[in-house]
Amino acid sequence: MSQSSTKPAVQDGLAFERPLNELQTKIDELRSLSSGSHLELQGEIDLLEDRLKRQTAEVYEGLSPWERVNVARHADRPLTTDYVTMMLDDFVELHGDRLYGDDPAIMTGLATMGEHRFLMVGHRKGKTVKDRLACNFGCAHPEGYRKALQKMQLAQKLKLPIISFINTPGAYPGIGAEERGQASAIARNILEMFALEVPIITLVIGEGGSGGALGIGVGDRVGMLENSYYSVISPEGCAAILWKSGEKAPEAAEALKLTSKDLLRLGLVDKVIPEPLGGAHRDQKGTIANVRVQLSEWLDELKGIEISELLDQRYRKFRQMGVPVEL
Prior knowledge:
This protein is an alpha/beta fold. The chain folds into two domains: 16-62; 74-319, 2-enoyl-CoA Hydratase, Chain A, domain 1, CATH 3.90.226.10. Helix content is 47%, strand content 15%. It has 14 helices and eight strands. It has helices at 18-35, 42-61, 65-72, 80-87, 129-134, 142-158, 175-179, 182-193, 210-214, 235-242, 249-256, 260-265, 284-302, 307-319, and strands at 90-94, 106-113, 116-123, 162-168, 200-209, 221-225, 229-231, 271-273. Strands 1, 2, 3, 4, 5, 6, 7 and 8 form an eight-stranded mixed β-sheet that branches. A hairpin with a 2-residue loop joins strand 2 (106-113) and strand 3. It starts with 17 loop residues before the first helix and ends in an 8-residue tail after the last helix.
């Protein structure tokens, strides 16, 4: 892709999607003209729709890592709250960490999906400007991670599996969060999740940034949506450290190997869940339907494994990560 196409999204959408949006606008205009007159335009509409599908497939097949990062951040991409609303049959939210407060950036609750009952944990970003500010754009405080751990320990008592939705640029970096033990809270979550005697499934649905993601990211099955990313640091953060310039974010994204395709090849995730043509933001229902099928499959698979074997597999799974491989 050209250098200009690696710039962040602009107000009228992602830069590399502009030709697709223009085609869609033409199709919509022809449909409107056809319905408001006696002109027969269906043949031309069909040709344009076929061209749009082919062009969309070509564009998304050739996306750079930086462009996939921007897709993962798309404003219309389904959030944890969308999965709760559109995928779950029942959900009872659980609040608070019993120590400091209730961090809205972490959402926890008892959930039902078909025949499956489980505890759901996930990052909440918010949809409106007010909600996004309240949730710190999905960047959790220590009380959020303590809340998540408390509810996961409750799931263990109730013998319920745990499903975790990851979607955060990272844990909240403010002074208050550090004063209340941000690093310690994340580290404890990682340690304790290895010992939880229930199946754990984690899924990166958008952004998977640093310890903020790992704080609810230890699982027996780790999945990613096709256009999500998972990384030790954001491309902008990496660029600021290495090159002292945010303009190097595209190069940083390439070097970090943060796409689902890279991470599957490196053995850091178990499966990549495909998104509908053109990304999850173009078809939220289709994306969530794909996720529901995969989660149900994993839940059925894991419930047949003895707890002792499950814990052993979980330990060995993460111990094997980081073994040097030739890229």
